[in-house]
Amino acid sequence: MLNHPFCVCPNPIFCVPLACIKSVILDLKKHWWKALSVLMITYTLWAGLMGEVPLREILDESIRNLYFHVTMWFAMLLMFIISVVNAVRYLSGSKEKFDARSNIYAETGLVFSLMGLVTGMLWAKYTWGAYFTNDPKLNGAAISILIYAAYFILRGSIKNPDQRGRISAVYNIFAFVLMIVFIQILPRMNDSLHPGNGGNPAFSQYDLDNNMRPVFYTAVVGWMLFGVWMSRIRYRIHVLKMKNETVEDITNEILD
Amino acid sequence: MWKEIAALIAKDFKLDFRQKYAVFATLLYVLSTTYIAYLIFKEVSDRRTWIALYWIITIFAAINTSMRSFGAESPHRFWYYAQLVRPSSIILSKMIYNIVQMVVISTFTFFLFRLLLGDPIADDLQMFLIVILGALGFSTSLTLMSALASKTSNNTTLIAILSIPILLPLAITLITATHKAALGTELSENIGSLSMLLLLNLLTGALSYLLYPYVWRE
Q1: Which residues of chain A neighbour B217 with C-beta distances below 8 Å?
Q2: ipTM beyond cut 0.90
Q3: In this complex, which of A146, A170, A178 lies closest to B214 when CB atoms are compared?
Q4: Residue A26: inside a domain, yes or no?
Q5: SS3 at position B212
Q6: What is the predicted pLDDT for the residue at A1?
Q7: How far is the CA of A41 from the CAs of A34, A118, A224, B44, in angstroms?
Q8: Is the residue at A140 inside a domain?
Q9: How many domains does chain A have?
């Protein structure tokens, strides 16, 4: 009778709208955060481009990049953390789903890091005068992209799924720790042009005289939720693919 | 456990002593690459170039050497080891053996560079300390990478791809430390980079030691 989620009624006269509403509410209880992420991102797109920002020397309007560039790195870091947590769980239990999740979250993280690099490069062109400078922060961005690109190549070159899971989980953990060292500890030891490093003012100082902070945190949470949502969709696609493939694989194995 | 490690290291030494080409191949690799640098530059007066060349050549030599630590032995032999020793003694023995190799190779490269490309390093003792710390760092991280790469089908390309991003934090710290040593800074002023190197080495060593048992399982 009730055909959730579209609430299709066979006969409009006997349709029960109350049950329909109930199912929608149940749906919302489970999926509200997805809608929230879209709302948050839409809000920050609007507030980020239209809102009031303090106009500082050199930075000028480019300070708005805080909403779009820094949020990418926050989302990327969350994706990589989820990926490495799943890698640890795979090593302790050898369950295939953790390996798949680790891989998928790393992929989403790589997308975020590429977007973070592009937005950062555009900003650097207008404030520092060059797309790419030899800066600890930029090196950190480059190393995380290199590490995860290597991770995917490593995955691609091992056939046995069990071994692929273990080897790539080990690399994931090892590389993640060194990436954290590289992007969190080393920049503090060297000078950097990046805001917040080497005596350059960080954005937190500009937040005092305006309301950039709420927009920024909304953007961070919005993009993080969005990243998790996209990864979960990709994980579900992966599960469905595996279901389809297993029958084919078994027949192929027998034929071989 | 130390007995196992000693036996494994002795075995590695014996193997390499019998097939002498393996060690000499790396030394020859260093010699020929340094000679190319010599032919191009004749004399390197610029400190920055000297340091860059030195660490590039050492890193690639280190990658080449460490490739052998797991790649040269057949996977069937590891099944045999699995029945005899613990995985942690395998990784420790390979790491210690690699440290010895790396120290030999990087000091060899250092003297070769001094001979051919000039000597811009002011504080030799400090430089030697950095070279040893670098060798430690290379062996602790590259040994595990070699173990990972040996499980794949195309391990020669893969080990370079896997290890270069891993070595970047180490390389940057090494280069800053070398710059200071080259300028003749006091040891007390350079202690920050040196302790950073030591911490990195401890970190990679501990990670390799903890993670290797998972690579080992078939």
Answers
A1: 166
A2: no
A3: A170
A4: no
A5: helix
A6: 42
A7: 11, 19, 10, 54
A8: yes
A9: 1
